[in-house]
Amino acid sequence: MTSPPTHRKNPLRPLPNFIFASRWLQLPLYLGLIAAQVVYVFHFWVELVHLLKAVLGSQTDLQALVTSIGYKSDVAITSLNEAIIMLVVLGLIDVVMISNLLIMVIVGGYETFVSRMHLENHPDQPEWLSHVNASVLKVKLATAIIGISSIHLLKTFINAANYDEKVLIWQTVIHITFLFSALAIALADRLMSHTQASAHH
After folding, report:
1. Distance in Å from the first CA to the final CA of the chain
2. Contact 116, 129 (CB under 8 A)
3. Per residue in 136-182, pLDDT tens?
4. Which residues, 6+ apart, have CB-to-CB distance to 126 below 8 Å?
């Protein structure tokens, strides 16, 4: 009985091997994004601590919150109101969504462009990572950016009295542009998928 043939991997020639190995130059970029993630986590907890202390009556933390969200009022602000709480919470949500975007870029980008992470049997493997590629990553990033833009737009409208009308108009235009860009990316990805499927049949 003959044993099945074994397929030997052909080693790359020196120049292609050098070019292919250049993908590891992206590693410091992903490590830098992890450092940015640490900064966002720190910022999140600083804002949350300010909010909790302001709830307990700390005027120093209340003023720190008011300054950070750019909230202005005709009367002196001596206690939390609904608008301030909503703006702070939206800011925290914004940090979380940007953090999610960072994770998507770090994990998905590393898996797609640098090296396999072999997470197939890991219980915490993200669902989207099992079928991630450059096109899927592009669509997911566009969707995440729309979510972040929506939060920013909502924060601006809640605090609209402190913004110039041109700022409101331009933020709305930019958000609509993000929407159309995401739709165009998703449509192009779908057309490419159908073209590739037709070519295989």
Report:
1. 36
2. no
3. 777 778 888 888 888 888 888 888 877 888 888 898 999 899 888 88
4. 107
pLDDT of 201 > 80? The answer is no
DSSP 163: S
- How many residues are listed for the chain in this entry? 201
Instruction: Give me the long-range contacts of 144-147 (CB less than 8 A, separation at least 24).
Output: 144/97, 144/100, 144/101, 144/104, 145/101, 145/178, 145/182, 146/175, 146/178, 146/179, 146/182, 147/97
CA 84 – CA 77 distance, rounded (Å): 10
Single out the residue of 46, 47, 50, 49 nearest to residue 61, CA to CA. 50
pLDDT on residue 47: 93
Dist. CA 56–CA 49, nearest whole Å: 11
Query: Is the Cα dihedral 70, 72, 77, 82 positive or negative?
Result: negative
Which residue reads 């008011």 in tokens? 66
Give the pLDDT confidence score for residue 43 in this predicted structure.
Answer: 93
Q: Report residue 98 as tokens.
A: 């940007």
Please write the tens of the pLDDT for every residue from 46-91: 999 999 999 998 889 888 888 888 777 777 777 888 888 888 898 8
Question: Residue 138 and residue 189: Cα distance in Å, rounded?
Answer: 9
At position 159, the amino acid (one-letter code) is N
Identify the burial level of 123 via C-beta atoms within 10 angstroms of its C-beta, where 0-12 means exposed, 13-18 middle and 19 or more buried: exposed
